[in-house]
Design goal:
single chain, 196 residues, alpha+beta, 5 helices, 9 strands, globular
C-alpha cells in the first residue's frame, strides 16, 4: 500500500511540475505614454463618460509584446479604476485597485501556498480585481459596483519575488479560488503602472 501511495505521489508531483513550468516561462513588457484626450477613440470616451460623471481621467497609450491599447485611469467613489480599450475604443477589461485581503480566505490561502512554492521569498506589491466580459456586462458591473453575471472575476497581482537568489517583479493572474492562471516576469516596469 505504501509503495502504491509513493508512486501516486510521484506521478502527481510530476504532473504538477509539468503544468506549473509553462506558467513561469512568460515575460511581460509594458510601456505607457500619457496621451491627450483628443488622441483617445470616441468609443472609449463615450464608454467612460456613460459610467462616470465628470471624473478626472488620465489617458495612456500602452505598448506591450501583444500590441497597443488605450487605458483610462481614474478615481471615483474612493476607488482607483483602470479601464483598458483596444485601439478602436472597444473595451477589453476593467481593473480595480484592491487588497489581497478582499479575496475569499480559501482562495487567498491557496494562492499564498502556490506563491510560496514558486518563490523562495515574495511580497505582494499591488493587487487589482480584474473584470473581463462584454461591454454591456462591464458597464452594468461598474454601475452596480459589483461584478454581474457574465463577468469573469480574477485577481492581478504585482509580486516582488526571489527565484534562484535573484529578486524580480512578476505579474500574477489568479482565479478567485487562488488557482494561478499565469505568472509573467515583468521585463521593464513603469512605476506609474505599478503604483496606480
Amino acid at each position: 500500500m505504501t509503495f502504491t501511495k509513493t508512486c501516486l505521489n510521484i506521478v502527481f508531483a510530476l504532473i504538477a511540475w509539468l503544468l506549473w513550468t509553462p506558467c513561469l516561462g512568460q515575460k511581460k513588457y509594458e510601456r505607457e505614454y500619457s496621451i491627450k484626450p483628443d488622441a483617445v477613440p470616441q468609443k472609449a470616451m463615450e464608454f467612460v463618460s456613460s459610467v462616470f460623471k465628470k471624473p478626472k481621467i488620465h489617458w495612456y497609450l500602452e505598448e506591450s509584446l501583444t500590441g497597443k491599447t488605450i487605458e483610462a485611469k481614474l478615481k471615483s467613489s474612493g476607488k482607483h479604476f483602470s479601464i483598458e480599450f483596444d485601439e478602436a475604443g472597444n473595451i477589453q477589461d476593467v481593473e480595480i485597485l484592491s487588497s489581497i485581503s478582499k479575496m475569499n480566505a480559501n482562495g487567498r490561502t491557496n494562492l499564498e501556498d502556490t506563491l510560496s512554492k514558486a518563490f523562495s521569498r515574495y511580497k505582494i506589491v499591488k493587487t487589482q480585481i480584474h473584470w473581463n466580459g462584454s461591454a454591456h456586462a462591464l458597464k452594468e458591473s461598474l454601475n452596480r459596483d459589483r461584478a454581474v453575471n457574465g463577468v469573469l472575476v480574477r485577481y492581478e497581482l504585482i509580486v516582488k519575488g526571489n527565484q534562484d537568489k535573484i529578486e524580480k517583479y512578476f505579474e500574477v493572474l489568479a482565479e478567485s479560488d487562488g488557482a494561478i492562471v499565469r505568472i509573467s516576469e515583468i521585463v521593464q516596469r513603469n512605476t506609474d503602472n505599478l503604483m496606480y
